[in-house]
Amino acid sequence: MAETLLLGIDLGAGSLKSTVITAAGAVVATASAPVETLAPRPGYSEQDPEGWWAALVGALRDLWAQGVDPARIAAVSVTAGAHTHVLEDAQGRTLRPAIMWNDARSGAQVARARAAHGDMILARSGNRISPTWTLPQLIWLREEEPGTHAAIRRILPAKDWLRRRLDGSAATDITDAWGLMLADAATGGWSAELCALAGIAPEVLPAITGSSAVTGEVGAEAARQTGLRAGTAVICGTSDTNAETYAAGMTRPGIGALKLATAGTVSTLTAAPAFSDDVIHYPHLVPGHHYAILGTNSCASAHRWLRDALFAAEGFDGMDRLARQAPAGCEGLLFHPYLNGERSPYWDPDLRASFVGLGFGHGGPHLCRALYEGIAFTLRDCLSVLRDRAMGFDTARLVGGGTRSALWRQIIADVTGLTIEVPAEGDASYGAALIAGIGAGVFADTDDAARAIRVAETLRPDPSVRGVYDDAFDRFREAKAALTPVNHRAVRTLRGAA
């Protein structure tokens, strides 16, 4: 009898990845396809949903070309970044490109909403408002694109829009519902007050179901386009970070997770949310738990920017080799990776990136290593908030594309002081495949599926560089504070010229 397979699909900011696993959790095949991000104005970040579907079709066709038999796939699940959403009109047509989670256009709307409704928003949604969330983006649309806003008849989080192309369902899970900042944290349903603030009716929002619930099956047209077997079970799925932290092994309190992806994140599991103005909370895949998370705006995206700007010939591997030639602390050079503002812990869309301390003695190796260290400092900045809230941890699972660099992995351990464990398979598409297995009954529950998770490497901080990094981190924070008014003035000048 042919072995049962499970398919997980993750829509990332830069690419869509599909992973096929066995019922024992072993990876059979993976495939990826690029996704384009548009920046029509400074601070804007958008994507065309049709490009997501094209990437999904391309990635699945690649799997079949590798020899995966779609008839053996028992279930498929989808994940994507929270907050990113698709707007549709009465005919189901997409109204505009999807505004991304790292879009900073709604800064003015956030400031006004915080001043007038900040306490209510925190009490209802469980989180502080920032330009990341869908709520202020909808307020921006009502003010800046009123025709588009008036035509909204359906709002779907990104993963749910993709999944609906597979099975026709209009549903979401509670984690992505929270990501819209339109759900009531106390009731688990849609909040009439938050919807009113956004200027929408709750009826335009999808039904909320479980992350591992069966939402339908692959339809005939989706099967024709993707090559999946018609009738394959489709499982709701969840946000990428929820799936990724679970797949990495963050399955109980006391273990954290750090992510080096388009954005960087620091998260930990909690038995109950402790709502505050500086820590974000979501329901977790593990029943009865939430996760506290702080996220930056730029991580691997800053790495890509530096490559494209200065090191296109060397590429990522060449940059990594260069970074190894510079000492810890980069001989005083610092990098602030605030290329599109910053989320945690500053919540300032008008911060900007900078190299600080450049001298004639610095070269390409210092620039490359300073980027690694600067991103590690932003994660330490976020970790400090959790530690101040008695939610710190000593061991963290490290995930994301940045983990491919052994040097960067060690720098993360050295700068944060954490013991770092790198899972053998820990990305969101792997987590989505595990969710597919839970929904299809291949795994009994999240505990059963978690038995497939393995640690491939353990890294411990090097005590010989702790003093260097403690001093550099202090200077990193001091320079950030000193440059903040300069950044704000530069952004105001740019906006005035636009």
From TrEMBL:
Record key words, sorted: Kinase, Plasmid, Transferase
Record domain Carbohydrate kinase FGGY C-terminal: where: 283-439
Keyword Kinase tagged: yes
Highest taxon of the lineage: Bacteria
A Pfam family recorded for this sequence: FGGY_N
Sequence ranges assigned to domain Carbohydrate kinase FGGY N-terminal in this UniProt record: 6-243
InterPro entries to which the protein is assigned, alphabetical: ATPase_NBD, Carb_kinase_FGGY, Carb_kinase_FGGY_CS, FGGY_C, FGGY_Carb_Kinase, FGGY_N
GO molecular function: kinase activity; phosphotransferase activity, alcohol group as acceptor
Biological process, per Gene Ontology: carbohydrate metabolic process
The keyword Transferase is assigned to this record: yes
Family indicated by similarity: Belongs to the FGGY kinase family.
Protein name: Xylulokinase
